[in-house]
Amino acid sequence: MQLFVSGEAQIMVATTVIEVGVNVPNASVMVIENAERFGLSQLHQLRGRVGRGAEQSYCILVTNYKLTEDTRKRLEIMVRTNDGFEIAEADLKLRGPGDLEGTQQSGIAFDLKIADIARDAQLLQYVRSIAEDIVEHDPGAQRPENEILWKQLKSLRKTNVNWAAIS
């Protein structure tokens, strides 16, 4: 790696460890073999290793010829955009949010009763602003008009979460 960073070597073959801590501005081409095996975030991180200098850069995704529909969608997203926020949103829609209070990194581990975190983002933002307003104006849950809301929230939160146990 040091030979590549110093410019003595023009080609480097590496594992995915390359995604961390390498900054070679003149690196302009990356070939990712078996790209279908990687998730969107890892592909985006790997692709970020090239194109840091003034030269045109390329990230070539080499895949198996038999791709699942999900894999095809993932790779199409990588081809379509370099925007990390767009990639993260697409990943959320494809894989689900995971367990916000635990260790599951994909899927729907918690059960939202009314909304879908990916599909209903605008609605959830709107409802959050309403909730913030209620908490700001009734922090002690004393207003009669909010009584049923506070009772419902307490019933939804049946267990305490030990955030210190989540790493």
Automatic annotation (TrEMBL):
Keywords, comma-separated and alphabetical: ATP-binding, Helicase, Hydrolase, Nucleotide-binding
One Gene Ontology biological process: DNA repair
Family matches, as InterPro entries: Helicase_C-like, P-loop_NTPase, RecG/Mfd, RecG_dom3_C
Superkingdom of source: Bacteria
Domain Helicase C-terminal stretches: 1-93
GO molecular function terms listed in the Swiss-Prot or TrEMBL record: DNA helicase activity; hydrolase activity
Gene3D superfamilies per UniProt: P-loop containing nucleotide triphosphate hydrolases
Name listed for the protein in its UniProt record: ATP-dependent DNA helicase RecG
